[in-house]
Amino acid sequence: MDAQSRGRAEEIDPADQWVLNPRTGHYELQLNDSGAQARPRVGAPRRSSTAAPSAPTAPSPGVPKPRRGDAPPGGRRGGRSRKGDGGGRRKKALAVTGGTLAFLLVGGAVAGYLYYDHLNGNLSVTDIAGAGTGGFKKDQAINILVIGTDKRSGAGNEGYGDKDSVGHADTTILFHIAKDRSNATALSIPRDLITNIPDCPTKQPDGTTKTVRGSKGIRFNNSLGQEGRDAGCTMRTVKDLTGIEVDNFMMVDFNAVKTLSTAVGGVPVCLDKAVDDPDSHLKLPQGEHRLQGEQALAFVRTRHAFGNESDLDRIKTQQQFLGSMMREMKSKETLTSPKKFFSLAEAATKSLTVDQGLGSIDKLTDLATELKDIDLKNITFTTLPVLDNPAEPANRKATVVVNQGLADPLLQMIRGDVSLTEVEKKEQAAKEAADADAKAKQDALLQGGRAAAGDVRVSVYNGGGPKGAASTTLNWLQNTKGMTKASNQGNAPSKVDATQLEFAPNQADQARALADALGLPATALKAGTSDAGAKTPMKLTLGPDFSQPGSPLAPPVPQELPKDVQQAQADKAVCAK
Known about the structure:
Number of helices: 14
Shape: elongated
Largest sheet: 8 strands, mixed
Strand content: 15-25%
């Protein structure tokens, strides 16, 4: 979509004529008298306050016609809303989400209000043959895998990447959005990490499914493209590597960096020293710069300009660039420019390949709505901790392996939905104080007598434990522990963060007996305030910390990140060194 080349009235770009009225908070068309073609029609219906502006000219050949209801040449259309929202919902998602996540830019930008069907047609959709959860859910944490491929697709990209390759997972970021939508973590996975790639079912062009055999001890970036692997294979590899189940994926190529950085008007970067990298063609003096197009791509591709010239330092540079793009898109200059909205919508959708769960503008807009309120200061970039591969000679280090000592607590925090930022610090302190008080009370409860095994009444639910955990636990309680009044209730109505036993005050002796049998800590006991009936059972809900009856629960999720784990917040500008 080229607003510069069509729809002009005396060299005036119509997109530039839509301006934000600070008094009303709505866009208004402001033209001078010389723009006769774009002058509003007499008697044209007024636009709804929620409707977003449309280009006030007819499209040139080759550009899809506006949807019914878009403004005709020189006029305004009457507002039309859906449940009081309509186009305004899409416009708002575009405005607020565009600045939230640069690499999830499509979540906001594609919520554009112009050429809706045309933007839908821009998207490429991949059937991932059952990889992932089937799609993110509004009431749960969200995990989106963002993949940057080095496939040489798109005009002008002939000189990048491996000319004979169908592409690798060159840049991979697992983006975790907290359940309460207050914070997010962007976990970069090094492409040269040695890992195992599992067997991978892939959809073929004829509709059949072919399983690509897995590989052991291979570079992570081979999880995409190689041997016929698709993005679903990368999703499966990430799940095996991190223990985090991925909901959806988004994949972009070289063109994404070029077109998105140009659409936003350039991305500010800071260099601690002058750079001249002949491989990436990045040549810049020390200081601040605004990069777009080829220069922006060179900046995120360079491996020899900063740090120790490794891929790990390139990851840091990419994180700095993405953080800067977020801040730029959050700026007033971007949020009040319809012209930039148009360009971003077109650039983002053309650059993107997604799974079927995100395969429409409506679905992407739903995702944008989930992300829109996250403050940049509560978005943390980090990298999976790694070590040099000990199997390689000291003078030929080319790959890395996971540093389990640092990676384990980081991954536990992400799996446990623990923020890496100081988000809601006061509320967290209050919660910790309340938890400490509750623990003291529960500890006191454990000091009393225990009921006989045959008197313990409990309903067992699976709220996030292993498959079949409720049935296995019931059999164990009845046949091994003699708690014959236990019953299996199957899956819980909703998942829990950790195993818990809910009981009434007059069931404390039963709770103590069951806690002893299962090895439940005091923190797993949740006492009610009202006594229960004589035949009312307690409620045991097995969580993700439960492995099998008789085994200790998994240790609590760490609340603090080890100091040696690399991290950076999206709201802070950092100079590349």
